[in-house]
Design brief:
The complex is a heterodimer of chains A (289) and B (429). By secondary structure, chain A is an alpha/beta fold. Chain A folds into 2 domains: 224 residues, 3-Layer(aba) Sandwich (Rossmann fold); 50 residues, no CATH class. Chain A is built from 10 helices and 10 strands. A 6-stranded mixed β-sheet of chain A has the order 5-4-3-6-7-10, with helices on both faces. In chain A, strands 1-2 form a two-stranded antiparallel ribbon. A two-stranded antiparallel sheet of chain A has the order 8-9. The longest helix of chain A has 24 residues. Chain A is elongated. The two termini of chain A are 39 Å apart. The N terminus of chain A is likely disordered. Chain B has 429 residues and is an alpha/beta fold. Chain B folds into 3 domains: 94 residues, no CATH class; 143 residues, von Willebrand factor, type A domain (Rossmann fold, 3-Layer(aba) Sandwich); 144 residues, no CATH class. Chain B contains 10 helices and 18 strands. Chain B has an 8-stranded mixed β-sheet with strand order 11-12-13-18-17-16-14-15. Classes of the chains: A alpha/beta (289), B alpha/beta (429). Chains A and B meet through strand 8, strand 9 and helix 9 of A and strand 3 of B.
Chain lengths: 289, 429
């Protein structure tokens, strides 16, 4: 994708400029940030006193209290930390749909760029892993200015093709991020990915699964000979009589996917191409009630 | 010029070929291909769509199929080559029966009308073609002392007309006759309709009608009941009639042939009449009929009629079996009667027997009705409108077999070529 494609995200970035992505729970990151940390630090937000123990830094003793009580106490307060965020974007052949426009991958890129911008604006480092049949493009979460355009360029440079192992990318992302967002159509190694998600749920702070669905997949032509782009031996014929059954089967599968992700403790959202992007982004970053 | 004996087959072949060409525009094909990542959710079932092609597929196969159908249709249509006809031909019916007074007048009238290539058919009780082809000059027309039949003449005329399909534009029917009432029967009007054009009626003179005063002679024993009945009935007529109650001999045949119009009535007492054989199981029957007269009485039926060429029934038992027949013998005829006449009782005195006797001693061919036929009958005979065209008549037997055979061979070759071409396309495709 050319530089012009990156600039086309300007509107998205402008719309999400005011959105923030609060952490679902206290984070355990070390670097200071906006999110409430598990650690108690030296911030102005006083929470409690604790008796001095050997090994505590002497600078943290509250000397005024010592003068009043002749006892040494350490002053504790809430600390805030960052939430390193990683976006795992599926760029397999099934994302190159419909042929020509590649709306599914474009949607995935828009979602990833929007979420990256929101996370960055929230003070969190952001990174990306883009997996395609041609290879993996990635960089770990960064806080420097220009990381969002860099993510956009990385996404634009990838060409959706081939078959990928999302489970491996998810495992890698969970190593360096505490908020991992998977953007995929879930038509690849779904079971393996779910297994990784269940395993990494404890370590990673937050896991999100954004299911990208093509509008043409929901309602394909009533008469066509269809072929799976990732399995060319799979050929079927759609007709008036089989169209309803196709929709029933696809709907049942989507419901099962949603149920599986949620059962794994992952925040699951669907994003259909053609629907308002901002609505999807707001929904993803909103704190659950 | 190529013509067809059964052109309907050609029309059917054309219709079949048109249907075949239309069918080649219909194509069954797979629907358009599409990449769909969620193809796994589509039920697995084959589907073909039907559409119309702008250009029919397999033009060579189509051409061979059409050629095969057309050749087969041509073969079944019975093709033959015929010449182009010109002018008007004539079929002349010349009356040879007893209803004509002067046979020479008939000859002259026919000769005056006849042109080269016309056909003259003489008719009496039957019909016989007297001359045809390119022969010139009047044809001899012998006269028969028998009742004529226009029905027989018309049948022969329609058959003769079919020969002009290659030689003339139109065909005229000419009837040279006295048009006696006795020549028109119940079938004449129907047979006249078989000739679709108008006819020309040429009237010749009928014989003078004289009152007959001859009594039939009878050779019988004394007290013969038939002789008694004959004496009472006194059937006077024109013909020289002899009734013989014994077995026939050569002298009887000589007598019949000796003069024109002699009638020998063979009505034996005990022996089988001429033209009859003994029945295997004699039986009784309740009556007989002859020419409008019915006699109801118990009879012993001992003889059975044997059908002979030229014989004509003149009496019937009430169950329809022939009880009496007449057959021409030279200028006269022999009339055989198988009705036993009881010697006892008053049977010989019965008026119905006398009436039957009067009918059975009529001249050869039955009673004469030589008066001119009614005007309505003659008008139907002449009809109106245009002359008939040769195409209106059934075609003569043509030799269509030779051309049809080669056409069928060509059709078979086309069919084999089509199989080869189609098989080759399947292998390569």
């Amino acid at each position: 994708m050319a530089a012009a494609e990156v600039l086309s995200y300007g509107e998205i970035l402008d719309q999400v400029r005011t959105l923030r992505w609060p952490a679902r729970a206290a984070v355990s990151a070390v670097l200071p940030g906006r999110h409430l940390s598990h650690r108690h630090g030296t911030s102005a937000e006083f929470t409690e006193y604790r008796p001095y123990r050997q090994g505590d830094p002497l600078q943290r003793i509250d000397w005024k209290l010592f003068a009043r009580t002749d006892r040494a106490y350490i002053r504790l307060s809430n600390d805030h930390a960052v939430l390193p965020t990683a976006l795992v974007v599926d760029a397999s052949a099934s994302m190159a749909f419909p042929q020509g426009s590649n709306d599914k991958y474009a949607r995935a890129c828009s979602l990833a760029t929007g979420l990256a911008s929101i996370a960055f604006n929230s003070g969190d480092p952001v990174g990306v892993i883009v997996i395609s049949g041609a290879g993996v493009r990635s960089f770990p979460p960064r806080s420097r200015a220009g990381v969002v355009p860099e993510i956009a360029r990385t996404l634009a440079a990838a060409v959706p093709a081939g078959t990928v192992r999302i489970a491996d990318a998810l495992t890698a992302a969970a190593r360096f991020a505490q908020r991992v967002i998977l953007v995929s159509d879930m038509l690849g190694d779904l079971e393996a990915t779910l297994a990784v998600a269940r395993a990494e749920r404890g370590r990673a702070g937050e896991l999100y699964a954004v299911h990208v669905i093509g509008a043409e997949e929901l309602d394909p032509p009533h008469l066509a000979r269809v072929e799976d782009p990732e399995d060319t031996t799979l050929r079927r014929t759609l007709s008036d009589s089989s169209h309803a059954e196709y929709q029933r089967r696809f709907g049942a599968w989507r419901a099962a996917v949603a149920s599986s992700w949620r059962a794994a403790g992952v925040t699951y959202h669907e994003s259909i191409t053609g629907s308002p992007l901002l609505t999807d982004l707001r929904r993803i970053v909103a704190k659950p009630r | 010029m190529l013509s067809f004996a059964a052109p309907g087959y050609l029309a059917a072949a054309l219709a079949a070929a048109a249907g075949l060409i239309a069918a080649h525009f219909i194509v069954r094909r797979q629907p358009r291909a599409l990449m769909l990542p969620t193809a796994r959710f589509v039920p697995d079932a084959p589907v073909l769509t039907t559409g119309w092609a702008r250009v029919p597929a397999d033009l060579l196969v189509l051409a061979l199929r059409v050629l095969c159908i057309m050749l087969a249709g041509l073969a079944l249509a019975g093709p033959f080559v015929r010449g182009r006809g010109e002018g008007t031909a004539r079929v002349i019916l010349a009356d040879r029966s007893r209803a004509v007074g002067d046979s020479g007048e008939v000859s002259d009238s026919a000769a005056a009308i006849r042109a080269s290539g016309d056909v003259v058919i003489g008719y009496g009780p039957g019909a016989l073609e007297e001359s045809s082809g390119m022969a010139a000059g009047p044809a001899p027309i012998p006269k028969l002392d028998q009742r004529g039949s226009l029905s027989a003449g018309l049948v022969a005329a329609v058959r003769a007309a079919s020969r002009y399909r290659d030689r003339a534009d139109s065909v005229e029917l000419v009837i040279v006759s006295s048009f006696a009432a006795e020549e028109i029967d119940a079938a004449t009007a129907r047979l006249r309709r078989e000739w679709p054009g108008r006819a020309r009626l040429v009237t010749v003179s009928a014989p003078a009608v004289t009152r007959g005063e001859r009594l039939p002679a009878i050779e019988a024993g004394a007290g013969d009941p038939l002789a008694v009945a004959l004496a009472i009935a006194r059937p006077v007529g024109h013909a020289d009639v002899r009734i013989v109650r014994r077995e026939l001999s050569e002298l009887d045949s000589i007598w019949v042939a000796g003069a024109s119009g002699r009638v020998l009535v063979h009505w034996p007492v005990r022996d089988a009449p001429s033209g009859f054989i003994a029945r295997r199981e004699p039986g009784s029957i309740g009556g007989f009929a002859t020419r409008g007269v019915t006699v109801v009485a118990p009879f012993q039926r001992r003889w059975q009629h044997v059908l002979a060429l030229g014989s004509m029934p003149v009496a019937w038992w009430i169950d329809g079996e022939v009880a009496g027949s007449e057959i021409a013998l030279g200028p006269g005829c022999v009339r055989s009667v198988a009705v036993p006449v009881a010697s006892g009782g008053d049977f010989a005195l019965r008026p119905d027997l006398h009436a039957a006797l009067r009918e059975l001693v009529q001249p050869c061919g039955g009673a004469r009705a030589l008066q001119r036929a009614p005007a309505a009958s003659l008008a139907r005979l002449a009809s109106s409108g245009a002359l008939a065209t040769p195409g209106m008549f059934a075609p003569p037997d043509r030799d269509t077999a030779t051309l049809a055979k080669w056409l069928l061979v060509a059709a078979l070759i086309s069919a084999l070529l089509e199989l080869v071409v189609r098989g080759g396309k399947k292998v390569s495709g």
